[in-house]
Amino acid sequence: MQPESAIQPALDIRDLRIEARTAQGMLPIVRAATLRIDPGEVVGIVGESGSGKTTLIRSVVGLLDRNVRVADGTIGVHGQEVMSVDRNRTAAIRGKQVGFVFQDSTRSLNPLLKVRTQMKEVLDRHRPELSKAETQAVMEEVLQRMLINDVPRVLGAYPHELSGGMCQRIAIAIALVADPALLLADECTTALDVTTQAEVVALLRELVSGSSVGLAFVTHDLALAADLCDRIAVMRQGEIVELRPTAELLADPHAQYTRDLLAAVPAWAELAPSEDATTIAPVPDLPDAPDAEPDQEPAA
Fold this sequence. Notes:
alpha/beta; five-stranded antiparallel sheet; 25% strand
């Protein structure tokens, strides 16, 4: 087994600071965040809306709002520095080395194009060496990995002809089809019903386990992260207040904010009530909040 220092991380964020330009001046959105995700590892990024978790992972692929900038720190993907104050190579790795799955698959899937066309566009751009037959084989293989049985029908369908859960599987397939080193999932189960949500989470776990892909799973649902993630990073007002293996964090949370989040989950609160739990204070409103949808979706 290789020592940790010899493992090339899928994602390596170091001392990242992100600021937003507002009418009141420059406001910090992410404060000195450091996060490493190794191949085959799932790391959850948990926090309330406005905590900076979405801004953190969107910075990896350069999808920050126009009024938001990286002020300090670095981002590395699979051993390459892709973002710093004076460097931005995110466009070069977006879609090829990093796949992104959005909360709402209807925004990331083109309603006017069949699934086959959308997947082929990604492969034509990022894996142009593939022949026509190889392209078809890769598309079929990745859909089978999504546990889709009727692959020919799905490839020939438009998004509106498929269920919400199926569309989210397609979105994940498109994010994975170019064989990236890193997958970023931003609240990708929020719009799904509970049963479909559980199926997608189990699918993500199966896809990452034993593979070379690292997964950052952004969610406001701590219970959902506990089911999926090897480690969990808890964010509060732009800071990672705790980052630990999931079982350790749940059994003995160090940060008061983490204890408050656990106390807010009824099942856990009954099993291990927090005597010093407090009502979670609301996150201050931020003008032109960076956690809002960006001006553009990522290119394939």
